[in-house]
Fold:
Amino acid sequence: MGELAKLVNIGSVIEDQLNSVGITTYDQLKELGSKEAWLKIRAKDPSACMHRLCALEGAIQGVKKSLLSQESKTDLQDFYRFFNS
Structure:
């Protein structure tokens, strides 16, 4: 288990995906942001879903994805829909 799997919402699968796109630290994830990290993952794994996007944002904010603010959830939903319409 690496550094990223210690973050909330990040298990070994998401950590492996992040590592495969060059993101290996929290600082890298935070700097890139959940949306850009998700796009990088999605380029390799088209099945990357809304839950993964929320998990990434929650990891950055340090909260479970279910506890993201409604504003954050709405923003992420709009972003996700843009790339899946």
User: Anything to note?
Assistant: The chain has one domain: 4-83.
